[in-house]
Amino acid sequence: MTSIADHIRDEVLAARLKRSSVLVVYDKHRRYRDLCRSLASDAVAVVDASDSSIESREAAARAFFSLAHEAGARGPAELLIYIPAGPPLTDEDRQADPFAAYAAAGAVFPDGDGDDYLSLCLKAKPDHATEVRRLFEQGASPSFALIDNVGGGLQWPALRTALTAESTRDILFALLQPSPKQKAALDASDAWDAEARPLLKTALGLKLVTRGKTWDPIANELWRFLLFSAFAFDLPGELPAALANVPRAPEAARTLVEDLCERLRSDAGARPCYVERAGQVETDLGLPDHCRGLTDLGKRDTFPFEERVVLAAAVAAFEADRLDDIRAILDSHRGSVWIGKGESQVQWDLLEAALRLAESCDDALRQIDDHARSLDSLVGFYASSLREVDRLQREFEQARADMISPDGGMSAAVEQVRDRYRKLAGKTAALFTRHLETAGWPPPGRLANVDVFDQIVQPMLRDSGRRVAFILVDALRYELGVALHDQLAETDQAELQPAFAQLPTVTPVGMASLLPGAGSGLRLQKDGDSFVVTLDGQRLTQVGQRMDLLRANFGDRFAEMKLSDFVAAKKNPVPETVNLLVLRSTEIDTHLESGPETTLGLIHQTLKTIRVAIHKLKGKDKDRGFDDVVVVADHGFFLNAHAEAGDVCAKPPGSWVGVHDRSLLGEGSGDANNFVIAAEKVGIRGEFALFAGPRSMTAYRRGLSYFHGGASLQEAVVPVLTVRLRQTKPAQMPKTKVVLSYKDGARRITTRLPVVSLQVQTDDMFALHSDVEILIEAHDSKGKVVGEAKAGGPVNAATGTITLKPGAPVQVAVRMNPDYEGKFKLKALNPGTLAVYATLDLETGYAV
Questions:
Q1: Which of 188, 219, 350, 455 could crosslink 399 through cysteines, CB 3.0-4.6 Å?
Q2: Is residue 600 part of a domain?
Q3: Residues 580-596: what's their mean pLDDT?
Q4: Which is it for the CA torsion 162, 164, 166, 167, positive or negative?
Q5: Domain that holds residue 799
Q6: Which tens digit of pLDDT belongs to each residue from 457-484?
Q7: What contacts 456, CB < 8 A, 6 or more positions away?
Q8: Could you tell me the sign of the dihedral formed by the alpha carbons of 461, 463, 467, 471, in that order?
Q9: Are 641 and 483 a contacting pair, CB within 8 Å?
Q10: Same domain, yes or no: 495 and 423
Q11: Model confidence at 408, in pLDDT bands (50, 70, 90)?
């Protein structure tokens, strides 16, 4: 066994000297003089400044000169200077130190906290840290011989044999969480008990009370002692009086206790056991009751009740508008083992989404006045950055909808962040409608939806043989187009630009505006008490009529179908004669119209379907694929989750046709709550003279939490995404393996928010930095989706996917359909092709 003196001499001083050629050792306690002198040899010059400063300076100069001028020749190759004094701490001290230049040219000892005597002893005796710390507590500087006597001999042979572990840390970890093989060895004999008792006393200060000699009673006592010790060490103040006499480890064992607990929390196999044991110990000791009133429990959440206390503190900070405090809490507790519980993860994800939205609203409010001088400037600001606030608001409301409990103790924080968004949305709406009245719509020099087909799609079709897919998505607002573009840009040549929807922003108008010739031929005509859309005199009241117009223009070169039908078709449903394929999707608008509180989480299904369709459009084998895809939207939408009971706008005086909940056509005059603009000025041609709508983000009907139809940036700025499909062979996927696991092999879930572990593994060094995008879905025996990865944390709220590099696993909460019960297959999928990366067979263990 290596002595402490040998460890310091060989592993520290000699190693540092070899790396730097020159080493200056400062030693005010004269502890290391003999070690330094013992390093002297033909190759190492040792200068001892203990006796004569002048002579030692001359000797050091001669030796250093020899190093500089006789490299490779006879003479010393390394120089060690020993100084029986403390190291210089200030520039003035270094100027007075005759050997400071040598330290600057080489290395110095001690260099930082890791070189103090205690740290060196702990490194030399890592398995006996508690005993070493106890010696230092008894005396400031125990001798080398005393340190060498710590842990002398090969101890704990029965434990080492049974557990196939060598170090004290590994033995303790195995006693806490033995593998099946280790557990069998412990059950086969109780010979290890005689060693376990002194080991626990020596290493942790635990004097076992149980007389049992089997693993269960010893493990129960060890877990309780270890977890309570970690809790006590982390507690900033005194323990409550009721807990003062609960056995716990001495300060000397603190490092070992914290190391074991951290290892148990971070080890994927041990984590479920830690969660179960900590919950039981918390109950046995009555910790929530005894610690009632404590608000600062430290930095680590040893027990589950601590995470609840910290969450409550974060919510209180939100209510007090202390956003910096919330950020600090989120950062420090991001890795808490208790956030791995699905119900807890939902609340933390909501808090983080609320913080991101609040900060984004504050930033936008500070910036918006700089972009308010014109409609063009305001629209540019929206397309470049303000739309991010809408994304964050959508993600926040989705996180709010994911809450199992409608309140969860966070209602005040929810309302506060909604108030922030309401304030920003109100100011933005006022600016937009003011510019709309003076500048009109759409902004000149920018792309309008009525020109998309003629300016983008039609020129593509002029190339002989070129095939174009035109995907019409109802209510794909601009920020969702950005999310889709980000997904596609890595695999295809995708370009995104904002376009401007035709007013009023309703589906019959918006979809007709995307047809050929809409820029010149689109009209809104009176039709009794309503209106009808016409294009070059042809009435367009239904989807079929719009498709017939395209069919009349392109004949057998045209085909159309629902986007979902195209994706679901096993064989290619499109004849090769087709050059223009229209794919239609209405799911976003349909879901949100039925209730955004429960359907926001379904938006990513539409984006997923578009991605799968684009992959399919490339063609494979002998199928001739398409060359281009153009994805467009008829209008956007606004999430009005902050609507209040009286949040409704009264219609202006006049004779009006109600187009939708936020727009009117006809005759009348404006007022304080409504704008009235000449129809021609906002691009509306036909039989109506005026266009009217609310100046604020309200509607003419109360209680709407989702709306479109009016004039706002969210409703009227839409994406145009063009994708040039690459016809080259797809790049080789990196050599990676996706691994799914649940609770160390468990096969039954007992919560509708089970948390699974997802990891990307690889042995290929070239794949270590490669991203792998993964979609998590639960499928029943018929392939129906019965659960999905819950948005938030590592899961992108718009796409429903997780992007990982090979490395440590991440915890992903899966939200099961509330009415599903039975067996299911959890799948990790390629989101573009739906190829299966990994599967996990599970079943529900809860009652529906």
A1: 350
A2: yes
A3: 93
A4: negative
A5: 737-844
A6: 999 999 888 999 999 999 999 999 999 9
A7: 630, 720, 722
A8: negative
A9: no
A10: no
A11: low
Top pLDDT among 510 and 299 is at 510
For residues 246 and 228, the answer to whether their CB atoms sit within 8 Å is: yes
φ, ψ for residue 743, nearest 5 deg:
45, 55
Residue 207 CA to residue 60 CA, distance in Å, equals: 55
Cα pseudo-dihedral 194, 197, 200, 205, rounded to 10: -150
- Write out the E strands in 501-649: 522-527, 530-535, 538-539, 558-562, 580-585, 628-633, 638-639
576: tokens are: 């090769």
What is the 8-class DSSP label of residue 709?
Answer: B
Q: What secondary structure letter does DSSP report for 450?
A: G
Dihedrals phi, psi of 245, to nearest 5 degrees: -100, 5
In the 3-class helix/strand/coil scheme, how is 760-802 assigned residue by residue?
A: EECCCHHHCCCCEEEEEEEECCCCCEEEEECCECCECCCCCEE
Contact between 435 and 375 (Cβ < 8 Å): yes
Q: Are residues 433 and 483 in the same domain?
A: no
**Cα separations in angstroms, 408 against 31, 326, 337, 344:** 61, 17, 20, 10
- Residue 340's identity, in one-letter code, is G
pLDDT digits 0-9 by tens, 170-221: 999 999 999 999 999 999 888 888 889 998 998 899 999 999 889 999 999 9
238-251 confidence digits (pLDDT tens) = 999 999 999 999 99
Residues 445 and 458: their CA atoms lie apart, in Å, by 20
pLDDT at 279: 94
Residues 6 or more apart whose Cβ sits within 8 Å of residue 243: 228, 285, 287, 290, 291
Least confident interval from 365-379, 524-538, 619-633: 619-633
How many residues belong to the chain? 848
Q: Which two tokens stand for residue 39?
A: 């390093």
Is residue 132 within 8 Å of residue 122, measured between CB atoms? yes
Taking the CA atoms of residue 535, residue 540, residue 544 and residue 550 in that order, the dihedral angle to the nearest 10 degrees is: 0
Residue from 473, 495, 484, 480 nearest 634 by CA: 473
Residue 122 lies inside a defined structural domain of this protein = no
Give CA–CA dist 133/139, Å, rounded: 10
Q: Do residues 556 and 582 share a domain?
A: yes
Q: How many domains does the chain have?
A: 5
Helix or strand holding residue 803 (H, E): strand 801-804
Structure tokens of 402?
A: 């994911």
Predicted pLDDT of residue 488: 87
| Domain co-membership, 453 together with 420 | no
- C-alpha distances in Å from residue 806, one per residue of 319, 774, 797: 39, 12, 22
Residue (of 606, 450, 569) closest to 521 by Cα position: 450
Report the SS3 class of residue 694: strand
Say whether both 188 and 258 belong to one domain: yes
Peptide bond into 250 cis (omega under 30): no
The structure's pTM equals 0.77
The verdict on residue 587 lying in a domain is yes
Q: Are the C-beta atoms of residues 773 and 800 closer than 8 Å to each other? A: no
3-state DSSP helix/strand/coil percent for the chain, to nearest 5? 45, 20, 35
Q: How confident is the model at residue 40 (pLDDT cuts 50, 70, 90)?
A: very high
